[in-house]
């Protein structure tokens, strides 16, 4: 993707067709493992606005995000096997873990953050949402010369891949868009495996 120095980001608007995307969205809302994660902010518990669900290929894997652990499930249900296989075959990359985020409407968001360095492939289903990348600042300086805020829309059935130095140099977020009434689910496929229980 152009205009993102120090990042390797690919975006494909119609990675899967709309009918399939809509069908997968509806089926995934029926998963029984959705829950709202709690973060600790200044010692107080803070329940986040989005629902998440997470699956690992192998029961010995553990997933951590922003310092808190995520409840992981095993095995993958057949639908998630099918979706992951579709993404893996098209990209030629295997994944060991998926984190699903469910933004039930535009009031639900994810704040600016960085993720771990593995390849992250993110499939979007449902409502279109804005995605913003911000240059990461270190000691008051951008880590990459010429980095400027970049935003675009993640469509229904689109795929976003972040890899390489992207997380070193950039933060990303899905901001609130209060006018959006429909829901969106993103499936974030990752290779992470480095922490054992
Ligand atoms: O929903 C998305 O597309 C982004 C989610 C995200 O950044 C994350 O789960 O780390
Ligand atoms: Fe992220």
TrEMBL record:
Q: Name one Pfam family in it.
A: 2OG-FeII_Oxy_2
Instruction: State the source organism's domain of life.
Output: Eukaryota
Q: In Gene Ontology terms, what is a biological process of this protein?
A: DNA alkylation repair
A single Gene Ontology molecular function, please? dioxygenase activity
* PROSITE patterns in alphabetical order: FE2OG_OXY
Domain Fe2OG dioxygenase residue range list: 94-193
Annotated InterPro entries: AlkB-like, AlkB-like_sf, ALKBH3, Oxoglu/Fe-dep_dioxygenase_dom
Q: What is this protein called?
A: Fe2OG dioxygenase domain-containing protein
């Amino acid at each position: 993707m152009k205009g993102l120095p120090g990042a390797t980001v690919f975006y494909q608007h119609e990675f899967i067709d709309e009918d399939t995307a809509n069908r997968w969205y509806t089926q995934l809302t029926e998963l029984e493992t959705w829950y709202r994660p709690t973060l600790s902010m200044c010692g107080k518990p803070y329940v986040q606005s989005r629902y998440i669900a997470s699956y690992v290929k192998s029961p010995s894997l553990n997933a951590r995000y922003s310092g808190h652990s995520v409840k992981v499930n095993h095995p993958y249900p057949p639908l998630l096997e099918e979706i992951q296989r579709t993404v893996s075959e098209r990209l030629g990359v295997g994944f060991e873990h998926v984190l699903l985020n469910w933004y039930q409407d535009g009031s639900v968001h994810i704040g600016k953050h960085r993720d771990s360095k593995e390849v992250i492939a993110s499939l979007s289903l449902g409502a279109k949402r804005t995605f913003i990348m911000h240059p990461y600042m270190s000691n008051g300086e951008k880590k990459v010369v010429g980095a400027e805020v970049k935003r675009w829309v993640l469509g229904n059935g689109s795929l976003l891949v972040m890899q390489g130095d992207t997380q070193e140099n950039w933060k990303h977020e899905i901001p609130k868009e209060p006018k959006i009434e429909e829901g969106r689910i993103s499936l974030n496929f990752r290779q992470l495996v480095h922490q054992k229980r």
